[in-house]
Design a protein that fits this description.
heterotrimer, A alpha+beta (158), B alpha+beta (369), C alpha/beta (190), A: alpha+beta, 3 strands, globular, B: 369 residues, alpha+beta, four-stranded antiparallel β-sheet, 13 helices, 15% strand
Chain lengths: 158, 369, 190
């Protein structure tokens, strides 16, 4: 079922990473960065290939963490596909129920297929990734503080 | 048979209006926001997501508000809403081995890579009600240590390497889906796990407890329990590769159970597995115990008649929306049914009384038909 | 995936699908009536009515069989993007699309089981044209009788004997659709 992920080109890998960041980013932050971009660079012309659509994805786990897959439950996802004036087709998938966010993600994906990729990565993807990394690090630091340092008691005589 | 009851529309509309008022309560008191519920009642939100089988914290928070805190009512709302959403596909199975653990403990091994990480737990709070919470106020920042960057391997891997624990076989079969087809027996393990992860926490807890009290031959140890976020990935056909679609917090519990061996299997440790949306420890542990109990046949154990071993009993009764649906339906008008019962009782009593009278008047005559 | 796959979906899915569903339901409820449905466009040689039907009825839970002549990479990509319906064999199909000849043999298709007669295949038969003449139809949903230019009689009579099991059919040509549920009695034209 899954295309062998080792056969991806560098561009595909970059696209994969970009879309993954967009999918998990904070909705508000993504939209804010996107508006800042369009204020500076103009909003792109586009047609909707697939209007923003709210749906679900069934999350699967594995029995015993490594065994047979089973259906755990669904997450909400909003997706959108757009076509730019130059013909590039972009797809946006974001967690949650926010149509505007999915549209922004699709437009970013489409623009990144052209020569805007590094600018978008610098102005939008980078900050989103940094925010996510920062939050993860914060949690990891708090978890680390709750790690038990055992003292082994040595039993004395008598 | 249900009687169509007309003329109740006005009463119903008024009932809904009063419900909305009761839900709001005293208007001189601030209204609850969805964000407040999501942030400050996170474990309630987790339960609604797990049993509603839909991971969307804002939606679960809204359902809790609408249901006035009635959790099963909130789950009902989530389940109903879920049916209106198209499904885009299924994720690749999540990799809990790569979880950044907020909490990770093992009751079987003291010193494990990654250590015993307590996380934000209630376990050591002594359960004393904290009246300072009533006043509200600033919460001091949590202490910080040096963040762990390496992944935290599963504890059962160590038992695996020694060959002491039962293997967990992978499968390429697409797991059946209870939300798409009715429950049918025999139910395979993936279907059972889906049923109990979305089953009522109280019911699964009680079933698990019953196995500990001797109804079933479990002696479980918590090999590991971990809580944290994992990525959810899915293949996207139009892209030709998979992407992360989101992140979910899950609680995973692996229990290690004694097993003295049987005709089918050598002595070894056997596994129970629990996996739930959100931070939900009681549910994850309960799920693992019930999972293990239902595996008696696969392991060649005896069926000692324990309710938790009876997979039909467990699976048919663990869904609280189904349960409350059938339970609460008896509130609906059953006027015609009951009328016929009433008539029958009256008729039988009349016959009995007539027979008694006949006996009294003419004790030596045969009773009239 | 080539970029043409992105064309041909509903422009306003909730409304377009609702309109198409209503017309489709009418066609199935009143066998012999010819309805018009629109909104979908798939790669050749699929008719717009068949494309619209796929958009309305197919989703990740409905297995679709594309019979020879209708099975192309472009069509597979279109189905995947717009419906995500799994592409399966005739034996596993919930829906099957093709010309009457290409859809044979009919005994490949699911006809349901006694406990679940609905777990049967629905054939989408692409026709050159649809006219209210030819075979005589009678039975549920038909006042007295109706007529439709069915591709043959024998197969539908044989299917009728399986009732309550059996397959059901849609017939499509251009933007027109007609339907034949398994409950309809089919005879030679009077």
């Amino acid at each position: 079922m899954s295309k062998n992920q080792n056969n991806l080109t560098n561009e595909q890998r970059a696209r994969q990473a970009r879309l993954s960041v967009l999918a998990t980013a904070s909705s508000d932050q993504l939209k804010a960065l996107w508006h800042r971009w369009t204020d500076a660079n103009g909003a792109p012309e586009y047609t909707l290939v697939r209007a923003p659509e709210i749906g679900t994805v069934m999350v699967r786990g594995r029995a015993g963490a490594v065994g047979a897959p089973f259906n755990l439950g669904e997450i909400t996802v909003t997706r959108c596909s757009v076509q730019l004036a130059n013909g590039a087709v972009g797809h946006g998938y974001v967690q949650g129920r926010d149509k505007d966010t999915s549209l922004a993600a699709a437009l970013i994906d489409a623009l990144a297929l052209g020569d805007q990729a590094s600018a978008l990565d610098a102005d939008i993807i980078g900050p989103l990734q940094a925010e996510a990394d920062g939050k993860a690090t914060e949690r990891a630091e708090k978890a680390a503080a709750t790690k038990v340092e055992f003292f082994t008691m040595v039993r004395g005589e008598g | 048979m249900y009687v169509a009851v007309k003329g109740g529309e006005r009463a119903i509309d008024n009932a809904h209006q009063w419900l909305a008022e009761e839900r709001r309560g005293d208007t001189s008191i601030a209204e609850l926001s969805i964000a407040q519920i999501r942030e400050q009642l996170a474990l309630a939100v987790n339960r609604v997501m797990a049993e509603g089988s839909l991971y969307d914290p804002d939606l679960a928070a809204l359902a809790i508000k609408q249901a006035r805190g009635d959790m099963i009512e909130a789950v009902f709302l989530i389940r109903a809403f879920r049916t209106t959403l198209p499904r885009f596909g299924a994720s690749t199975p999540i990799d809990t081995g790569s979880m950044a653990c907020d909490r990770r403990i093992s009751a079987t091994f003291k010193d494990v890579p990654g250590g015993q990480v307590l996380g934000p737990t209630f376990d050591y709070t002594h359960r004393l009600i904290d009246f300072t919470l009533a006043a509200g106020g600033e919460v001091p920042d949590a202490a910080r240590g040096k963040a762990r960057t390496e992944p935290t391997p599963h504890v059962t891997e160590f038992l695996d390497k020694e060959g002491l624990i039962q293997e967990e076989a992978d499968s390429f079969e697409t797991p059946r889906d209870l939300t798409r087809e009715p429950l049918d027996f025999p139910a395979d393990r993936p279907l059972k796990l889906q049923a109990i992860t979305r089953g009522d926490e109280g019911f699964i807890l009680s079933m698990a407890y019953s196995t500990q009290r001797g109804y079933g031959r479990n002696h479980p140890f918590v090999g590991e329990m971990r809580v944290g976020a994992v990525d959810v990935e899915m293949d996207i056909p139009e892209l030709g590769f998979s992407i992360a679609l989101g992140e979910v917090t899950v609680t995973e519990c692996e229990t290690v159970n004694q097993f003295m061996g049987s005709k089918k299997q050598p002595p070894q440790f056997t596994r129970g597995y629990g996996l739930v949306f959100g931070h939900s420890e009681r549910k994850a542990i309960s799920m693992a115990l019930v999972d293990r109990a239902m595996r008696w046949e696969e392991l060649g154990e005896d069926n000692v008649g324990a309710p938790a071993q009876d997979d039909e009993f467990v699976l048919y009764h663990c869904d609280n929306v189904q349960a409350t649906g059938f339970l609460e339906h008896i509130k609906l008008p059953h006027y015609v049914d009951f009328q016929s019962e009433l008539e029958l009782i009256r008729k039988l009593r009349a016959e009995v009384e007539a027979a008694q009278e006949a006996d009294e008047e003419a004790p030596f005559q045969e009773a009239a038909e | 995936m080539s970029d043409t796959v992105y064309q041909g979906g509903f422009t306003n899915p909730p409304q377009d699908a609702a309109h198409a569903f209503r017309a489709t339901m009418q066609a199935m409820a009143r066998p012999g009536t010819i309805e018009t449905i629109k909104g979908g466009q798939a790669p050749r040689p699929v008719s717009s009515a068949a494309a619209t039907l796929l958009l309305t009825l197919c989703d990740p839970d409905t297995g679709l069989y594309l019979a020879p002549g209708h099975d192309s990479q472009a069509m597979r990509d279109w189905v995947t993007f717009h419906t995500n319906a799994p592409l399966v064999s005739a034996e596993e199909a919930d829906f099957a699309l093709g010309s009457w000849q290409a859809l044979q043999p009919l005994d490949a298709y699911k006809v349901g089981v006694p406990a679940y007669p609905d777990r049967a295949a629905t054939l989408i038969v692409e026709m050159g044209s649809l006219t209210a003449s030819g075979s005589k139809l009678s039975g549920p949903g038909i006042k007295d009788s109706a007529a439709l230019n069915l591709p043959e009689i024998a197969a539908f009579q044989a299917n009728r004997t399986l009732f309550p099991l059996g397959f059901d059919c849609f017939f499509t040509a251009g933007d027109q659709i007609a339907a034949l549920p398994r409950s309809t009695r089919v005879e030679e034209a009077a």
